[in-house]
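REQUEST ID: PR-0412
SUBMITTED BY: lab tech R.K.
PRIORITY: routine
TASK: structure prediction, single protein chain
INPUT:
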Amino acid sequence: MIVVAGESLIDLVPDGAAGPLAPLLPRPGGGPYNTAVALGRIGADVAFCSRISTDAFGEVLVAGLRAAGVATGLLQRGPEPTTLAVASVGPDGSARYGFYVEGTADRLFALPERLPDGVRAMAFGTCSLVLEPGASAYEALLRRSSREGVLTLLDPNVRPGLIPDPVAYRERFEGWLPYVSLLKLSEEDAAWLGGSPAGWLERGPAAVVLTRGGGGLTVFTRGYEVSVPAVRVRVVDTIGAGDTVNAALLHGLGGRPPGSLGREDWRELLSFAARAAAVTCTRAGAEPPYGRELGDA
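STATUS: complete
OUTPUT:
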């Protein structure tokens, strides 16, 4: 089983009209949530570990997980409101967000006593590792899972507007790396963090996957790097594309340690992730593909 730990929220996405007062459509979202749904749609055995509101938005989020085949037994529920993220989409389809997070359910996540037997991989990232008190609980879960030998993927998916102290966050990020098997991040994340793949590899991950939008994907390991091009499609928006890459990587790894893959293994895996992300980009909001749309990893 793969467990995805982190926030879920409602993205308020422009309906295609221009301007700051364009009508907004509510869609399920949140980086970890999208990753879990993508894994479920691809056909993975996956569970979502989070705290979700009992409000109407929360019920929609839980229904979306179940519809995708994601196990919900690890969910914590609470009466607090659901986090909202207001998206603005640029001419190239890239999205930026404003967040409404005060007193919301997902940031009150508590460390579970244990996870089910058979967990072989876990994914972490985005707002859940920023917003306290839940951030400390997710961090503790990351460290504990790594110590237990579970493969861990970290996607920082940096949201600068939620980070009051960038210096402290960067230090905290460095502290996570010894517990990370696979680090995946975008060029924008890398620029904001100010590090390099070589430096991050020295801290612990066996591989670093860098997404470069239309420039494709590159993996860096301690011995070599491999790049694949992006799949050319008509981009509606890029919401959820990086989360789909997370899912494709975890599914394609199949429990294999990232350090065990050779060049051709990585080329196949990155190509699979590129195809999956491309499908997501052809749809409004975070709508990852189903396995039947992708073929084999």
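NOTES: The two ends are 17 Å apart (CA to CA).
REVIEWED BY: pending
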